[in-house]
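ok new one. same drill as before - structure tokens go in, u give me an amino acid for every spot. 153 of them this time. try not to just spam alanines like last time pls lmao
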């Protein structure tokens, strides 16, 4: 029978708040003009080269207002006014990405382009070619040409 594991007490690192650090907000108390990176992405924006302007404290640190949040669960807050619209790739960039994805998802033996990346480093071909069975038609792109490049946009 295994011995029960002893629980180690987690040491609390106390970092007092100072005026030199970024301002910190608890959950649901930050202004509307400050959002997280994920909220910027949902709005079609990016930070635009600017760093965070505030810190969103974790749930546990909301009970200790006099200490700074140093946990990994904190989030950085960015200003909506400083954010810029997300860049859209050019047609040449999309074509290059499509060629790269076609190389990762095309079997060199049967020349089928699958909807997922193939294990080309380990197997060198797709599973149906490696294990010699016929793939289901919904897993690859049916076309008459060996490899057809389809742009994402």
């Amino acid at each position: 029978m295994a011995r029960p594991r002893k629980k180690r007490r987690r040491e609390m690192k106390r970092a007092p708040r100072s005026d030199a650090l970024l301002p910190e907000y608890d959950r649901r108390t930050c202004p509307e003009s400050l959002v997280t990176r994920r909220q910027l992405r949902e709005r079609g924006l990016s930070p635009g080269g600017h760093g965070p302007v505030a810190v969103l404290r974790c749930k546990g640190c909301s009970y200790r207002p006099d200490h700074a949040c140093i946990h990994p669960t904190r989030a950085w807050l960015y200003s909506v006014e400083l954010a810029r619209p997300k860049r859209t790739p050019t047609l040449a960039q999309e074509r290059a990405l499509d060629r790269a994805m076609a190389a990762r998802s095309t079997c060199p033996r049967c020349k089928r382009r699958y909807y997922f990346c193939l294990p080309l480093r380990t197997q060198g071909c797709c599973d149906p070619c490696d294990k010699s069975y016929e793939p289901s038609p919904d897993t690859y792109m049916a076309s008459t040409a060996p490899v057809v490049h389809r742009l994402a946009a």
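The longest strand covers residues 75-79. and btw The helical segments are 37-42, 91-105, 127-131.
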